[in-house]
Amino acid sequence: MILNYIWIFFFLVAFIVALVKLIFYHDTAIFTTIVNSTFDTSKLAFDISLGLTGVMSLWLGLVKIGEEAGAMRFMARLIGPFFSKLFPEVPKNHPAMGNIVLNFSANMLGLSNAATPLGLRAMQSLQELNPRKDTASNAQIMFLVINTAGLTIIPINTMMLRAQQGAAMPSDIFIPVLLTTFIGTLAGILAVSFWQRINLLDRVLLAWMLGVSALIAGIVWLITRLSADQANVYSSLAGNLILFTIIILFLLGGLWKKINVYDAFIEGAKEGFGVAIRIIPYLVAILVGIGVFRASGAMDYLIDAIAYGFHGIGLGTEFVPALPTAVMKSFSGSAANGLMVETMQVYGADSFTGKLVSTMQGSSDTTFYILAVYFGSVGIRRTRYALACGLIADLASVVAAILIAYLFFG
């Protein structure tokens, strides 16, 4: 229901802004620009879905091998005590647990191409347990919100873009990203737990959260011991080595269980095409709405108003040029990437703004995109409070990124 009103809001605000530009500023091209954006974003939605088909088929095929080899059950038993508290609706040793773990692992390693099909597989597994097929379950909401928070240990893509833009130390945003994404994820978990009345003081949850905090502290300590070049090399190597090792373990597990791994792969890969087709209407809807809002200039006015507000109360506005990326990140990862690169080109990759925008880009995920794709893949129309909690996590990430950037780079 909330998404319905937000979608309508995009169009109405875009129409009003465009009318003002036409009547008062004689901008006769504004409606042409808006209409053209609907065609461009519709094509973009189809291209995204088409581009996902191959990688979805690959990873859903590999996951099918792992599932038949018992890998999902093993991972579910391993991390079950923690996830059973966050996902009390999911039975112990259910394959959904293993799919959730794989998705979170790919996200943390910065491997977004692998994370999306794994996340869709996890959402499908959770949908099997959902008694109301058109309404998001508690478990699906918790899973989605943690995804939107974008918990990332190795922001490979952001560091590569910084290197392309001539940053002296592309990995200097590593620690700020790690801290920011952890805060955003924690905020998302707290928000959903409040709604679902999950007891976060449970001994198991506390032990796991403290353990993860210690692990992050250890990674931070290790990275600070490396040079910038070494950090980039080892981060990329670690992420892809772990990912390929998982593939090999799935194949070996299939051989151990004496299953036909090739047939299992084909069976799972067939699902990829169907999923890619199902998400097209949802992507078209959300991307066209965002496109007209941006093409009308409403996004620019929103950012300018925020800057004016902070200036009016006497606060610095050095962070304001990074806000378009922060806002767009909730809608489109590719658009946010473009805005980040544009900001670094204008202000410099090693400027405060360049480092802040990189921290923002590397420490959260595309809430509206994930909401549309993940829920759309299983036909969920009633998202309940998923969007609200996802935006809370996004807001926490933005505020944390600004404060941490001032601490590290100010």
Task: Provide structural commentary.
This protein is globular. The protein has helices spanning 2-25, 30-69, 71-86, 95-108, 112-128, 138-149, 156-164, 174-196, 203-224, 228-256, 261-278, 280-295, 298-312, 323-329, 333-347, 352-362, 367-376, 386-409. The chain starts with a helix and ends with a helix. Helix 4 (95-108) runs antiparallel to helix 5. The protein has one domain (2-409). It has 18 helices and no strands. The protein has 410 residues and is mainly α.
Structural class by sheet pairing and helices: mainly alpha
Number of domains: 1
Provide the helix percentage. over 70%
Distance between the ends: 41 Å
Q: What is the CA-based Rg, rounded?
A: 21 Å
Tally of DSSP helical segments: 18
β-strand percent reads under 5%
Report the principal-axis shape: globular
Q: Can you summarize the main beta sheet?
A: none
Q: Tell me how many strands there are.
A: 0
Helix and strand run: HHHHHHHHHHHHHHHHHH
- By oligomeric state, this entry counts as single chain
Q: On the 0-100 scale, what is the average pLDDT? A: 82
* Uncertain stretches: none
Q: Topology, please?
A:
Blueprint: H1 2-25, H2 30-69, H3 71-86, H4 95-108, H5 112-128, H6 138-149, H7 156-164, H8 174-196, H9 203-224, H10 228-256, H11 261-278, H12 280-295, H13 298-312, H14 323-329, H15 333-347, H16 352-362, H17 367-376, H18 386-409
Helix pairs in contact: 1-12, 2-5, 2-10, 2-11, 2-12, 3-4, 4-5, 5-6, 6-8, 6-17, 6-18, 7-16, 8-9, 8-16, 8-18, 12-17, 14-15, 15-16, 16-18
